[in-house]
């Protein structure tokens, strides 16, 4: 009785209610309610989410040099001239580089350089959410460039390297192997 | 400002956050105490400044009205958040009450009630990426009023016209769909009571007792009745392709928040919600549409939900790599730590309250578990040496806060009150020592999330209550 048809029959039988799927009423697909519409490819094309294999990365490319300009203009006011972050006198933005080798210490410093496992996440996040005060305002080339700049300043890629849809997924982040699946449940805490 | 020793030992990222929360709580407490100063009636258990302040305001308003002043102007100016100020008659049985329906058809709370959420001070966070703490110390039962539900936003509160809002379901599906709000409301609906807890709730308390009130220590927890369409209903509509295993949920706020969610969870109890506590979801809770993932960390309950993209793998978004991962002492981080384990806290008596003297008190609080129902709650009045069963408010619902109550006769001697939750899976809420033994000393630095240790409130001989590690 867990299918839609089953539910429908149960409903009709039990209550003899004037309940019918619109699709059924219209002589359509009896297995589905049929609400909503089919989105057009154009409607779906404005969405993106970039997984580690780079699927969905847009055309375009970026260089360290261009990225330096983008960063100075659109990012430095909150993340600092040297990507060191601004915490005082008021927090404006996170530190983006540094901190390598500190994760196992008593005072870990988590940055794109020291902590982030995938470079694709950086592209995705900057395109999605930065600059904080004007999210989504950069062109894809500008995003590629500022990503190249951050990764270059973090000494993860050479400052001469150009970043595009092909090369970005191949960047190996220093903390690539720094994560493991949640080991809970912690059995020592059970009765 | 914060006591320097409360911040010692935190990393760069965490220190300003803790400082901001300490400062915000101190500000809230200072306002409370200032209002209490010349109030004989409020030395009692529930420090609540509202009464006195509003009485004074009302008094001056009456005077203003008698002098022909503009009453409406001050009423707007002085009303506590969520209330409308009215003249208080000396005897409400001798004067007509307020005329009916002049509130425009949407009510407000009493002008004498002042419980509000507070957020960390601005120097520590931006006004756009911040959070507010729910006043648990002034809560009754298990439902959180929608206007007091805690918040966490990563780039402000989106303002969305529901007529122009759509939910797209696409990716590894047979029939991609675009649903309007009206479409979604045509599907069979479900209503369920669930708590939402931020993974960062209680993160200030790893090293030492840091915040003073239960609002500060546990206020990133709230409970609502959520109404919407089960994800499974929509999954059947769109059809899942072989290999589908994860779903990316995306919000339409300025953070365009994204999280990857295992398909299993969504099919089990994921809810695409448009209703909260009997009305439309509040803007700051994701109006018009929010994803509810019962018992999983709050960040995954994507607000302003605009699309679900079905995939065979997680996307590794910023919020599931840079944030919401638990860095352990060996430098490796736990990832995808979704479920919120069993936890409880006593809300009365709790930090900064004062018991007027020996005698009877009802110790009460909240218990919850992301694994299912609360099976039992035990209360200790001697710092965990002995435990007694508390009464649970019925019905005990799965993945919902449960109110517990425990009658206590205070003999006037110093006491330490604790509560301990055991859920239906047999999970026992750990002591701080047990929790730190598992998470290691990285707790206060890296692994700041998922703090669910037993909370201790010390009652001093003078009746004052404070946050302690015991």
Give a written overview of the molecule:
- The complex is a heterodimer of chains A (191) and B (470).
- Chain A is mainly alpha-helical and 191 residues long.
- Chain A has 2 domains: 4-41, no CATH class; 49-177, Cytochrome Bc1 Complex, Chain D, domain 2 (Orthogonal Bundle), CATH 1.10.760.
- Chain A contains 7 helices and 3 strands.
- Chain A has helices spanning 4-15, 22-25, 41-45, 64-74, 76-79, 119-129, 140-153; strands at 61-62, 163-164, 179-181.
- Chain A has a two-stranded antiparallel sheet.
- The longest helix of chain A has 14 residues, at 140-153.
- The relative contact order of chain A is 0.14.
- Chain B is an alpha+beta fold and 470 residues long.
- Among the domains of chain B are: 152-327, Sulfite Oxidase, Chain A, domain 2 (Alpha-Beta Complex); 343-468, Immunoglobulin-like (Sandwich), CATH 2.60.40.650.
- In chain B, the strands form 6 sheets. Chain B has a 5-stranded mixed sheet with strand order 4-3-12-7-8. In chain B, strands 5, 6, 9, 10 and 11 form a 5-stranded antiparallel sheet that branches. Chain B has a 5-stranded antiparallel sheet with strand order 18-17-21-22-23, with no helix packed on it.
- In chain B, strand 17 and strand 18 (388-389) form a beta hairpin.
- The radius of gyration of chain B is 23 Å and the shape is globular.
- The two termini of chain B are 26 Å apart.
- Mean pLDDT of chain B is 90; it is low at 38-43 and 48-76.
- Chains A and B meet through helix 6 and strand 3 of A and strand 4, helix 5, strand 12 and strand 14 of B.
- Strand 3 of chain A pairs parallel with strand 14 of chain B.
């Amino acid at each position: 009785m867990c299918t839609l048809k089953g539910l429908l029959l149960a409903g009709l039988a039990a209550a003899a209610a004037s309940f019918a799927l619109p699709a059924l009423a219209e002589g359509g697909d009896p297995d589905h309610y049929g609400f909503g519409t089919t989105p057009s490819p154009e409607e779906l094309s404005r969405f993106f989410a970039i997984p580690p294999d780079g699927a969905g990365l847009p055309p375009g490319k970026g260089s360290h040099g261009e990225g330096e300009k983008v960063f100075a203009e659109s990012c430095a006011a909150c993340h600092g001239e040297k990507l060191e972050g601004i915490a005082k006198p008021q927090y404006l933005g996170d530190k983006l580089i540094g901190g390598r080798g500190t994760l196992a210490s008593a005072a870990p410093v988590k940055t794109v350089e020291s902590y982030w496992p995938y470079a694709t996440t950086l592209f995705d996040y900057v395109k999605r959410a930065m600059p904080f005060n004007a999210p989504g305002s950069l062109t894809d080339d500008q995003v590629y460039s500022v990503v190249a700049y951050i990764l270059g300043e973090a000494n993860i890629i050479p400052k001469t390297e150009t970043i595009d849809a092909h090369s970005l997924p191949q960047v190996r982040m220093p903390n690539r192997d720094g994560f493991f699946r949640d080991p809970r449940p912690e059995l020592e805490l059970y009765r | 400002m914060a006591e320097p020793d409360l911040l010692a030992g935190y990393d760069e990222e965490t220190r300003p956050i803790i400082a901001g929360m300490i400062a915000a709580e101190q500000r809230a407490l200072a306002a409370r105490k200032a209002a209490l100063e010349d109030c004989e009636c409020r030395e009692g258990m529930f420090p609540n400044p509202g009464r006195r302040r509003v009485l004074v305001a009302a008094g001056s308003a009456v005077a203003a009205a008698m002098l022909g002043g503009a009453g409406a102007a001050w009423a707007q100016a002085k009303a506590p958040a969520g209330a409308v100020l009215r003249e208080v008659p000396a005897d409400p049985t001798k004067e007509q009450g307020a005329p009916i329906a002049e509130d425009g058809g949407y009510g407000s709370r009493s002008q004498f009630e002042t419980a509000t959420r507070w957020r960390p001070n601005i120097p520590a966070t931006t006004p756009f990426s911040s959070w507010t703490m729910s006043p648990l110390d002034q809560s009754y039962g298990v439902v959180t009023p929608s206007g007091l539900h805690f918040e966490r936003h990563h780039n402000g509160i989106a303002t969305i016209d529901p007529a122009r809002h759509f939910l797209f379901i696409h990716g590894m599906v047979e029939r991609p769909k675009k649903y309007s709000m009206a479409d979604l409301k045509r599907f069979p609906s479900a209503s369920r009571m669930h708590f939402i807890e931020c993974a960062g709730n209680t993160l200030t308390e790893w090293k030492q007792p840091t915040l003073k009130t239960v609002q500060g220590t546990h206020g990133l927890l709230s409970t609502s009745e959520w109404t919407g369409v089960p994800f499974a209903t929509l999954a059947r509509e769109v059809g899942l392709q072989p290999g589908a295993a994860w779903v990316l949920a995306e919000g339409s706020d300025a953070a365009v928040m994204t999280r990857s969610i295992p398909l299993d969870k969504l099919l089990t109890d994921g809810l695409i919600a448009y209703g909260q506590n009997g009305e439309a979801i509040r803007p700051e809770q994701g109006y018009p549409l929010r994803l509810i993932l019962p018992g999983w960390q709050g960040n995954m309950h994507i607000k302003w939900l605009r699309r679900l993209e079905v995939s065979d793998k997680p996307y590794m978004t910023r919020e599931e790599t840079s944030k919401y991962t638990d860095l352990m002492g060996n430098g490796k981080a736990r990832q995808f730590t979704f479920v919120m384990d069993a936890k409880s806290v006593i809300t009365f008596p709790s930090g900064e309250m004062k018991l007027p003297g020996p005698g009877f008190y009802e110790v009460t609080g909240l218990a919850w578990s992301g694994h299912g129902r609360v099976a039992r709650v035990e209360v200790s009045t001697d710092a965990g040496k002995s435990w007694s069963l508390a009464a649970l408010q019925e019905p005990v619902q799965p993945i919902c806060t449960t109110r517990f109550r425990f009658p206590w006769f205070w003999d006037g001697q110093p006491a330490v009150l604790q509560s301990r939750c055991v859920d239906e899976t047999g999970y026992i809420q750990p002591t701080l020592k047990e929790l730190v033994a598992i998470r290691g000393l990285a707790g206060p630095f890296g692994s700041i999330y998922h703090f669910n240790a037993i909370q201790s409130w010390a009652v001093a001989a003078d009746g004052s209550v404070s946050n302690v590690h015991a």
